[in-house]
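Appendix B. Chain record.
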Amino acid sequence: MTLVEAREAALRASRAKGRAGAREQAVLVAVEFTGRRRGLTAAAKLARDAATIVAESENEGVDAAGAGAEVDLDFAASLAEFEELARSAGAEVAATLVQRRARPDAATLVGGGKLEEIAGVAASTHADVVLFDHDLSPSQLRNLEAKLPCRVIDRTQLILDIFARHARTREGQLQVELAQLEYQLPRLAGRGKAMSQLGGGIGTRGPGETQLETDRRKINLRIDHVKEQLESVRRIRRQQRQRREAVPVPVVVLVGYTNAGKSTLFNALTEAGVLESARMFATLDPKLKQLQLPSRRKILLSDTVGFIRNLPHTLVTSFRATLEEVERAEVLLHVRDASSPTKEEQKSQVEVVLGELDVQGKPMIEVLNKIDLLPQEERARLERECGVRSDDGPVTVAVSGLTKSGLGALLEAIDEALVADPLVESRLRVPQSEGAALAALEAGAVVREKRFEGNLVHLTARGPASLLARYARFRERG
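C-alpha cells predicted for this chain:
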C-alpha cells in the first residue's frame, strides 16, 4: 500500500469512527527547544529543583536522546496539559513522543530522524491523527502531511476543535467559525496541486492557482459575513447593557486558567446549575446571573472561558464579543487552582491575556480555589494568610467551590471591592407612613438598631451610597 493509499484509508477510518462516536487514536508530539528554554517563575524553579523527572529510554514514546536527563517541571506540566487537551477533544492517546533539540527544523519542526519514528509509531498504533504541541507553519504542515500516514493537527487547530465542540450559543459558534477561517486562510498557500484536483473537468487542470484563489475568495467572503453577524451580536449586547445600566447593577467577572474551577464556584455562589467538567474549555459561552451580597447589594456575576498557556492570539481577537464583560467589569475575580504545582505560571499566563485585553488596572480579588484538595496543615496556613490586602497585590480569599467553604469571606471581599457605589452607614428617622421607603431600605441595605418612637422609625442602615442618598431627607441631624 502506498503512502497516499494509507492516508486515504486512515481518513476513511477516522470518518467512520466519528460517525460511530468512537474515540480517535492520537499520537502526541511535544518538542522542547533547549536553545531557547522558556523562563520559569521563581516558584516554578523551586518546584523544578525539588522534583526532577528522569526519562527512561525504554519508556514508549520518550526520545532516547533525553534518557536519564532531568526534565523540568514546567515542561512536564505542559506535556500533561497537552494530553488533557487531546482527551478534551475526544481523542484517546495511543503514544506520546518527546524530542529535545536546540532549535526547530524549518521544514518539519522535528527533523528527519524523529519524523521517521513518528511515522512508525503512527502506523503501528493505527493512529487517526498526529497532534503537535506547537503551531505549525503552512509549509511544515504540508511537509508533515506528505510524510505521515494520517492527519496532522497543531496546537491551535486542536484548541479550535475543542471550542467548536463546546460552543452552544449562536454567538459562540460564530466566534469559533471566525477563528477557524482565519486559521485556514494562510494554510491554503502552497497547496495548489491539491486544490487543482478539487475543481475537476476541463479548464481546471494545471498548477491549480485558479482554484486556490477561488477558495481564498470564498473564505474571505465568509470571514466578512461572520464578522457582520458578530457585529450584530455586539450591537444587541450593547443594547442589553444599556438597559442594564439604566438600573445600575455592578458586573463582577470570574477569570482564570482553564479547569481552575470557575464554573463550580459560579454554581456554588448562584445555584445556576451550569456545566461543571474536568475537561478543558467546558465553559465557552458566557453565563450571567444575579447575586445578592451580604450588604444586600445586587451584582451580576459572569462566568467566562478559561485561559491557557500560549493561547492563540486569533482566539483572543475572535472572542472579543464574549470577553466584553471582562472589559466592562467593575471587579475581576481571578480564580486559581490552589492545589496545582504550576499555579504561579498559570497566574502569569492569565495576566498575559488580561494585559492583551487592557484590564490589568481593574480592582481584582485572587480566589484560591480547590483548597479541599490541600493537606490540612497547608490549608490552615492558607486560610490564615488570606483575607488581607498586601501593599503590592490584590486581596486573596481561600475557598472551595466544591464544598462551599470560604464563600462568605469571598462575598464580603466583593462587597468591599465595589468602589463605584461604596457602602456607607446612615442614621435615619423615617415616618411609618413612608412604607415604600422603609421597604426599599429593608430590601437594599442592612438595617439594624431599629426602634419605634410615636409614628417615627429610628434606624441605622448600611448600604450602597446611591440607595441611602435617595432618602437623605430622613437623615438624623447632629
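Further analysis of this model is presented in Appendix C.
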